[in-house]
Amino acid sequence: MTLLSLSNLKPSRGSKQYPKRVGRGNASGKGTTAGRGTKGQKARTGGRKGIKVMGLRRLVLQTPKLRGFKSISKAAVALVGLEKLNEVFRSGDVISRKTLSSKGLIPASATQVKILGGVELKKKLIVVGCLLSAPAKEKILAAGGEVR
Predict the structure, then answer these.
(1) CA–CA separation, 46 vs 61, rounded Å?
(2) I want to staple 26 with a disulfide (CB 3.0 to 4.6 A). Which of 31, 39, 40, 84 is the partner?
(3) What are phi and psi of 84, to 5 degrees?
(4) How far apart are CA 117 and CA 140, in angstroms?
């Protein structure tokens, strides 16, 4: 077992290659000025003053800032059309958020589901615990299905 030191450090297999270590003497290839050139504000430690120096201060100030947080409880509603229900489910099946998620029609993280009308429903389906658009509700009931 070899002793770990600066001379035998190397990244583990499969990891990213790290950038060259700068400012470690002239023999390293990035000594003295550490690749910053010579003199001037950009050569100093903490020298670059960000995007404001480049004449884009107004742009920085005008862009909207993100404030607050996004609540998980107000997640977007997953949308499913009647054409997908025609393809995936059989007549008499119960449709809920759980069954739609297991069939891969909505993401598992979806908290609410809304079924949209589009095409005519050819199967008798039982919809439980889903939001429905007015045309979708009419078409489900017209096909002999139930809404709970």
Answers:
(1) 22
(2) 31
(3) -70, -40
(4) 9
The fold of the 76-147 domain, in CATH, is Ribosomal Protein L15; Chain: K; domain 2 (3.100.10)
Q: What is the pLDDT along the chain (148 residues), one digit of tens a residue?
A: 678 888 888 878 888 777 788 888 888 888 888 888 888 888 888 777 665 555 666 777 777 777 777 666 666 788 999 888 888 888 888 998 999 999 888 888 888 899 988 888 888 989 998 899 999 999 999 988 889 8
Burial group, residue 120, by CB count within 10 angstroms (0-12, 13-18, 19+): exposed
Dihedral angle sign, alpha carbons of residues 36, 41, 46, 50: negative
pTM, to two decimals: 0.49
State the CB neighbour count (10 A cutoff) for residue 114. 15
Provide the β-strand partners of residue 127.
95, 147
**Distance in angstroms (rounded) separating the CA atoms of residues 110 and 134:** 21
Question: Token digits for 82?
Answer: 């009647």
89 vs 143: CA distance, rounded Å: 14
Contact call for residues 80 and 113 (beta carbons, < 8 A) = yes
